[in-house]
Design a protein that fits this description.
The chain is built from three helices and four strands; from the N terminus they run H-E-H-E-H-E-E. By secondary structure, the protein is of the alpha+beta class. It has a single domain, classed as YhbY-like (Translation Initiation Factor IF3), CATH 3.30.110.60.
Length: about 100
């Protein structure tokens, strides 16, 4: 579980990154979860855009993706969300 200070720090890091993925009307599928997991292992922090044609709302997509990747929701803002998961081998981010 992230503390408020850690979440704030991760939000500031997320401001500088572009969306790595887009979720459309197909929603979150197994292949996407595999890609999320690989990206989280490599970078620990990913930003995802939920397209307007998605059938689910941003919060639903975010919660499902976080649950399936066992990651933490950093923030949901507009049509984007940010996930964090500590890497097992490739520690990139030092949390405060």
């Amino acid at each position: 579980m992230l503390t408020g200070k850690q979440r704030s720090y991760l939000r500031s890091l997320a401001n500088g990154i572009d969306s790595a993925f887009q979720v459309g009307k197909g929603g979150v599928n197994d292949n996407m979860i595999k890609q999320f997991n690989e990206a989280l292992e490599a970078r620990e922090l990913i930003k995802v855009t939920v397209l307007k044609n998605s059938l689910d709302d941003v919060r639903e997509v975010c919660d499902e993706a976080a649950r399936l990747t066992a990651s933490e929701v950093v923030q949901v803002i507009g049509n984007k969300f940010v996930l964090y998961k500590e890497s097992k081998e490739n520690k990139v981010i030092e949390l405060p």
